[in-house]
Automatic annotation (TrEMBL), chains A, B:
Residues 12-138 form the SnoaL-like domain. InterPro entries: NTF2-like_dom_sf, SnoaL-like. Pfam families: SnoaL_3. The lineage of its organism: Bacteria, Bacillati, Actinomycetota, Actinomycetes, Streptosporangiales. This is DUF4440 domain-containing protein. It comes from Bailinhaonella thermotolerans. It comes from the Bacteria.
Length: 149, 149
């Protein structure tokens, strides 16, 4: 269930799919095109699972290039997608169910864990552009993680 | 640097401080009051560091009651706060620098780690209300965490 006009919600969901499609294909050109440009007071921001907050196209796109270059295979299955649009901002939350290539030499695939994401988009002259990606790891044993700190 | 009218940005920053103030004081009444009400297609959502996505006031407020009841002492120092407001949605990103009571019996305080948060607010007849809190752990050794999965 989502809030906003059907056209906006559809366009935001398509922009969101473009992010995951570009990631799966390790396509930096598509990644460059789908992120918003930095503006006064509105730098793009990105949090990879377990990472600190990155701000600005330079830092964000370099980090994505690095991660994509070091990812052999990845596929995202999104569930629990919810979108809210108001004015020129859209906020989408979803769960990413990740499939990755296993580390062994045998060709096989393994569950790559679960990530929760908040993706925010801004409306521009060129359509909805990604302005914030915040992914966080779903840890199996939160209690243990907390104790380790 | 933030985007929106000065009055909106000020009000959103105050609503954000109210969230952390209520948390520090383990005040469930204040927590109940500052979160938005669920609406069609716009349930409140919450991700605690390392947790899966929780939706709806029931789940979210129960989780906060549980965490606050089990937290002896916590203080948040927010840095790198950025706000964007458009229409009836505001999105705030920040880094939480956390101070907690140490586990030893000696009265002392220890760094409780770093969390990155995305907090989204909706404009209501009663002012800006929290609609999404997404906190994610900043892990010291991301590589190790990934290998463990």
């Amino acid at each position: 269930m989502s809030v906003g006009s059907a056209a906006d919600i559809h366009a935001v969901e398509a922009a969101n799919q473009e992010f995951y499609g570009a990631f799966e294909n390790a396509d930096l050109d598509r990644m460059n095109a789908l992120w918003a440009h930095d503006a006064d007071g509105r730098e793009i921001s990105c949090v990879h699972p377990g990472w600190p907050l990155l701000r600005g196209r330079g830092e964000v796109l370099r980090s994505l290039a690095l991660i994509m270059a070091n990812t052999k295979y990845i596929q995202f299955v999104l569930t629990d997608v919810q979108v809210a649009v108001s004015g020129d901002i859209a906020v989408l939350t979803c769960s990413e169910n990740i499939l990755t290539a296993s580390e062994t030499e045998e060709p096989s695939f393994a569950p790559g864990g679960n990530v929760v994401s908040t993706n925010a988009f801004v409306r521009t002259g060129e359509g909805w552009k990604l302005w914030l990606h915040h992914g966080s790891p779903v840890l199996d044993q939160v209690e243990e993680e907390v104790d380790e700190q």
